[in-house]
């Protein structure tokens, strides 16, 4: 029997939490044979709801679910956690940009980053979902100087999945045949969904589009549709995406911990290391492959002039966000 993994989830009583916990307990994230202990954090006023969710988890009789801890104390939630999903934060509503949440949410990530630094497992892997996710991940990372910076990531998998689906729908082809997609940059309207490397059964997607006279679709429809999908969901549902976000969080940690898809890469926002001319100091969406619990940025992709401009626009926005939270970044 494997030792259990402690998985902490913040904002566990919220809508993403409700779509996430049952997937994790069912083994979708770490495998059916891997016992998990869920350490669920939410605000004091959300504790009754959180206890209700814990009752439902019990009622599922998931074989891999060893224990559920509910708390409003981050020290209890993060203690010895090996995986931390930082979801707890305000979502935007209609008409807001994700960066409008910085003032309300940034402070959560500095406090929780400090506590992670004190009590989490030294090899903890952190995924930030709460928006603005990239900058919140930077805040948490900077407040946790004793933990490896490379273990702080932000979620771009939802954007990645959205991009793949748009291509699959356009070409009337199966999702699983679309490979080598990437969404560069910030999880925001400046993100750059880039299909110039994407392949379908070994052929370049761009060539298939050209063959059909659909080149204009990339800049006119594909990129803006993916960039604005979060807002479109909010407009339609009156609430921000939850099930699709939870699904992406499960996939992000699954691929990071276990492996990424065969013969493919995935998009993760990770601390920049200078690759593709994006200097260190921001958490930025890159194509990565994962092996043995480590990710590696895919190197050597050719980027067009227009593509590089898109990449830099998103980088510039991350620098602006960083400037707004510089008082939260520790030393
Ligand atoms: P929600 O309002 O339904 O739930 C958020 C939960 O967080 C609530 O239960 C709230 O009480 C809790 N919370 C707030 N402050 C907290 C704190 N300091 N500590 C612990 N818990 C706290 O929101 P949601 O729809 O679940 O969305 C959560 C966040 O995820 C939002 O910021 C949203 O914008 C973001 N999001 C990101 C992506 C992405 O792709 N990165 C996708 C969807 C949503
Ligand atoms: C999304 O992309 O759906 C989330 O980040 C929610 C939002 O505010 O767009």
TrEMBL record:
Annotated Lactate/malate dehydrogenase N-terminal domain residues: 6-145
The answer to whether keyword Oxidoreductase applies is yes
- List the active site: 187
> Could you give a GO molecular-function term held by this entry?
L-malate dehydrogenase (NAD+) activity
Stored Pfam families: Ldh_1_C (PF02866), Ldh_1_N (PF00056)
* All residue ranges annotated as the Lactate/malate dehydrogenase C-terminal domain in the record: 157-327
**What EC number(s) are associated with this protein in UniProt?**
1.1.1.37
EC category: oxidoreductase
Does the record's keyword annotation contain Oxidoreductase?
yes
Q: List residues binding substrate.
A: 92, 98, 131, 162
Q: Which GO terms describe its biological process?
A: malate metabolic process; tricarboxylic acid cycle
Which reaction is catalysed here? (S)-malate + NAD(+) = oxaloacetate + NADH + H(+)
**Residues involved in NAD(+) binding:** 11-17, 42, 105, 112, 129-131
> Which regions form coiled coils?
none
The UniProt keyword set, sorted, is: NAD, Oxidoreductase, Tricarboxylic acid cycle
Q: Which InterPro entries does the UniProt entry name for this protein?
A: L-lactate/malate_DH, Lactate/malate_DH_C, Lactate/malate_DH_N, Lactate_DH/Glyco_Ohase_4_C, Malate_DH_type2, NAD(P)-bd_dom_sf
Q: Which HAMAP family match?
A: Malate_dehydrog_2 (MF_01517)
Family per similarity comment: Belongs to the LDH/MDH superfamily. MDH type 2 family.
| Protein purpose | Catalyzes the reversible oxidation of malate to oxaloacetate.
The protein in question is named: Malate dehydrogenase
Question: To which species is this protein native?
Answer: Ferriphaselus amnicola
Write the gene name.
Answer: mdh
């Amino acid at each position: 029997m494997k030792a259990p993994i402690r998985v902490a989830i913040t904002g566990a009583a919220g809508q993403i939490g409700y779509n996430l916990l049952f997937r994790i307990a069912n083994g979708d994230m770490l495998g059916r044979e891997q016992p998990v202990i869920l350490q669920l954090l939410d605000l004091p006023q959300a504790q009754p709801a959180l206890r209700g969710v814990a009752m439902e988890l019990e009622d599922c009789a998931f074989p891999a679910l060893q224990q559920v801890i509910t708390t409003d104390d981050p020290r209890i939630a993060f203690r010895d956690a090996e995986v931390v999903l930082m979801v707890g934060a305000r979502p935007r509503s209609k008409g807001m940009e994700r960066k409008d949440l910085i003032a309300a949410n940034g402070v959560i990530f500095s406090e929780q980053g400090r506590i992670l630094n004190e009590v989490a497992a030294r090899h903890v892997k952190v995924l930030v979902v709460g928006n603005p996710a990239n900058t919140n991940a930077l805040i948490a990372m900077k407040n946790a100087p004793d933990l490896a910076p490379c273990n702080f990531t932000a979620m771009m998998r939802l954007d990645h999945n959205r991009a793949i689906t748009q291509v699959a729908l356009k070409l009337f082809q199966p999702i699983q045949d679309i490979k080598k997609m990437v969404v560069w940059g910030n999880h925001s309207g400046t993100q750059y969904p880039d299909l110039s490397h994407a392949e379908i059964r070994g052929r370049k997607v761009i060539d298939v589009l050209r063959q059909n006279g659909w080149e204009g679709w990339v800049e006119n429809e594909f990129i803006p549709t993916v960039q604005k999908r979060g807002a479109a969901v909010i407009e339609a549902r009156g609430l921000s995406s939850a099930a699709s976000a939870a699904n992406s969080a499960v996939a992000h940690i699954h691929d990071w911990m276990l492996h990424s898809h065969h013969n493919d890469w995935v998009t993760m926002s990770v601390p920049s290391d200078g690759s593709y001319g994006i200097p260190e100091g921001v958490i930025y969406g890159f194509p990565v492959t994962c092996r043995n619990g480590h990710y590696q940025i895919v190197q050597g992709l050719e980027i067009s002039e227009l593509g590089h401009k898109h990449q830099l626009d998103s980088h510039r926005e991350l620098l602006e966000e960083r400037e707004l939270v510089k008082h939260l970044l520790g030393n």
